[in-house]
Fold these 4 entries.
Entry 1:
Amino acid sequence: MPSVKQLQVDFGREEGHAARSVDLGGAMFARVASLQVKPNASSDFARVFEKKIVPALRQQRGFAGELLFVDPGGPEMVAISLWKSRADAEAHDRGSYPELLSALAALIERPPAVKTLQLAYSTLHPPGAAEFPSQSPNTTPPGSPGA
């Protein structure tokens, strides 16, 4: 059984893809990318995503998993990559991300809108993988202009 700092990743496993353990070691981070696939490019996008993007991500330090959500019949997609640390997510952004994005360039309408977020709560991960970060002291107090 996985320890608190380990997660056995095997849900949604496809034939030929073995389950793998991910050493979480603290709060996880997600890179959330919103994108639109070009008309009639869904099949090509799926092929490139499965054959090039996911294998490349699995080679990245700190990569913990990938989720791809689609609007059935529509162009919108949201890709969420999970990382063991913010540093790992940012290293991917500076490193292999531009090359992976270029592999999709002909299949998407424009570069994705990407945001890095800390995992605050998850029913899919053991305790310790998520934590509510402390709020910045630079927030607008309630009742102030702009609140």
Entry 2:
Amino acid sequence: MGNAAGGHRNNEAPVRDVTLSGFHMGIHPVTQGEWYDLTGETPSQALGDREDGGSGWRNLPVENVNWFEALAFANAMSARAGLTPAYTMDGTTVTWNREANGYRLPTEAEWECVDKARKTAIMTTKCPASTLGMIS
């Protein structure tokens, strides 16, 4: 994990090895339609054709949500699927239950692993095989 190439930011060094367990990641960002169907809200600024009564907006990525809202959405997805929510939230205090089987945001290491694998199409033992089947 990290960036060994020149020109990196201070927080990208030193490069270090990270071992990941298997995980899954969706093949696309959460869409406005998925967010609306679960929450009944449309927080996004990008309206697409919503103003004209079209449904194309449903396929646009949701945006204009904060980290806490994203965690609450993950917990709601978990509840809908009958899974154990990954987060306990008390105001701005968040606890991640690593034993939970519910939806959650990827860790920095998972995100970096998936991004590098997607860009290079190279699979290593550091990026579990179960991940790549979920990435476009």
Entry 3:
Amino acid sequence: MKATVWLAVATAGLALLSIAFLTIQSPLTTTVTVTVQTVTGVQGIRSVEDVCFSRVSQCDAVIAGLIKTAKTRILVAVYSFTSDVLADALVEAAGRGVEVKVVVEAEQAGVRGSEYERLRNAGVDVRLDGNQYLMHHKFMVVDSLFVVTGSYNWSRAAEDFNDENIAVLEGVNVARMFEQEFYRLWSTAG
């Protein structure tokens, strides 16, 4: 009889990954082979600052709180944006001199409760995505250091009815990757 058992352990979110495996040769004799592989700083993430699950926690408060700490720049790419709380936070940030740029899915800009026109009227730099299909991203980059990402749309449905999530990541490398994606979207948005 030969069986291999794999064990994967993640510590501190994504900061450390160890892989070990055990090989059993027969019921009478056991040979144990342990291999440990450690990877640190996966994709440039320094730490996972927060995780939020909607309906049981207030994810909009987590996002708004991070927006309030912004000093220089906020980049947002979001499929659905109907949250008054998050629109208020972005308008307030822009009012205190933070550069705010938002890309919204074009098909969602005209839905009831969309914050697209409100953001435009408040002077926030907001564009509609240029993808002929769907721009289904849901992420924000704050001050080239923090990234908020997950399934969470910026909507009341996401906050109060759906099971959705966000993770707040800290790290300049991961932030840079999301910024590159944001500016790729921005370059084709109108």
Entry 4:
Amino acid sequence: MSGLPIEKLPLVYVITGAFSIVSGPLIGRASDALGKFKVFAFGCARDHRDGGDLHASERQPLWVLVAVIVGLQIGIFSRMISASALMSALPKPSDRGLIHVHQLFAASKFPAASPPWLRA
């Protein structure tokens, strides 16, 4: 028999679930304190590393599997939490009309791709 025995699977779910319960609020606080994009970049780098470790490894002991899965969950939550905070953030009042300037610039550079109401 190769791989993880089915009897050990609930243990993996309990341990990784407990870590996800604890890590979610901590990642949210880190996103507020350190910056949303920094936490997002950390999550991307962590998942890149742990994903490579998980797929390039041979058969490992249970604790290594749990550690890699917990690391992947921390990376995934770092990306999800900080990305949702980035997308829901309001721009500063001084930047709120900036999108129209970008649209006008794009329309002047690429007139065929601009909306009809911006074409001269």
